[in-house]
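so im writing up the methods section and need the Beta-lactamase record in one place, dumping it here so i stop losing it
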Amino acid sequence: MNISTSIRKLTYVFVILFVGLSGGLVYWQVVNADNVTSTIHNPRRCLAENNPVRGRIFDRNGVLLAESVPAPASMGCSGGYIRKYTEPSLANIIGYYVPGYSMFDGIEKQYNDVLSGKTGSSALTNEVNKILHKSAVGNDIYLTIDSRIQRLAVQEFNDYHPTTDPFYFQSFITPTEQAYTSDRGSMVISNPHTGEILAMVSSPGYDPNKMVQTLSAGDLSYYNSLIANPANPLLDRPLTETTTPGSTFKTVTLMGALDSGATTLDTRWDRKAAAGPLYYDGSQIIGDNLGIDQGFTRYFPINTEYAYANSDNIVFAQIGVKMGQQTWLDYARKLYIDQQVPFDLPVKTSNVQTTDGTPLSTLQLASNAFGQGVDNITPFQMSLVDNTVANNGVLMRPMLVSKITDNSKNVLTSSSPQQLNTVVSSDTAYKVRQAMDAVATCGSAWHLDDNFGYNYSIAGKTGTGEIGGGQHAQGWMITQAPFTLNDPNQMPAVTITAVRENGGEGAYAIGPAIWKTYNDIFSKGYVKANFPTPRNPNTWCQPNNLWQQRLAN
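--- predicted struct ---
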């Protein structure tokens, strides 16, 4: 036998075996790798799921909010990683991540492919790492959140003690009727000119680190306790809790009515027009809120600005009906009500129409116009209303993710401010700001300035959302600061929208937390702004027909 022929045949055999072995390796380690990894019989499953070095999450100032750290031995896995969160109050925004569980939410879920390195410039590198059994490396995300403001907002929201705080025992408050103990609610703080979300509180919340530690050990007790909690701490309240907005929604009606010419701030309302009785479809509209019997409003006519400052339902029901259903709905839709809000996280759609699609009755339109009726609105949606007024009538796209980088800080994508709609004219927006200032300086919220300071010229609108069923009302406010009366083009730098669920009247249930948060933000210099000289309500309100009588403290 020719030895050369034998060597050639043997070489062919080795080549065929090598190709077959290589093909098998490619099939099992690449083509079918995920199926092999996921099988419960694979003892390396835990290692593989925990092995990727998930991307980090930072705030707007580069403060670390989330990172992957080596998993403890108690997990029963070696060489893996778990998530660590430095600002637990952001759990509703960031969510949590535990390999093997699909219950995580927030940025961790919405940007899972980015954080895991499945997309972006690291995707190809991570495929190679996967073959070589090296750890995949994810991309980093920078949020618009300012963690300093977030901590302040959480602190002030939780500092609420209506049964013991001296503020609630002044002559103008009846604690058992106007403010009720509640730790449930939301707060959204924004830059209205860019749409950036600076802070977002969802209360009560949960501890994402405890969630990671317990689930990683296969312990569902903490998760199950949160599910069983009737306060629902896993709910992202600002984005997904819809409820009656109360009189804050008069701001939507006022915007549309001023812009369409249905009313002016100086339109006069005699006693019957302002106080009723007023009926639509056989039902009486309740709530003149003018304090006629108490002597607060003694002289008529009043104007629309006075009616807004003192939250008169009777006047705003008539304004809504005068606008007409289609015009009123058109302005609501410009604000992205009854449609999906574009955002970096899912937002539940707010609605002001009937669930069965039938047209609003006259009674429903009138009630919607002052924030009752069939209005069903998220706090996030009301923050867009607030932002539009503060930004001279232009609604900006709300923004939470500012940029995405690789782990070497090379920018992969970045976000920039984007206009969604011009809702009303700049002149209309300024007049609405003027009316909101009348609320805070002279109207239903004047006690807040009086107790927590005038320095930052806060404008706002109170709301008391009646939800029936024997439950206490939802206490709402939308606010912006600083407000400048003499320069329509100097717009407020910050907006705060907040609600305390079942807290009672908005000025008392959530107002103090908002005023103290503004004081913190501005006094610490976290947001820079030009502050006008504070106006004294004692010398301003009565000469401008914005109050008629004021009780002494």
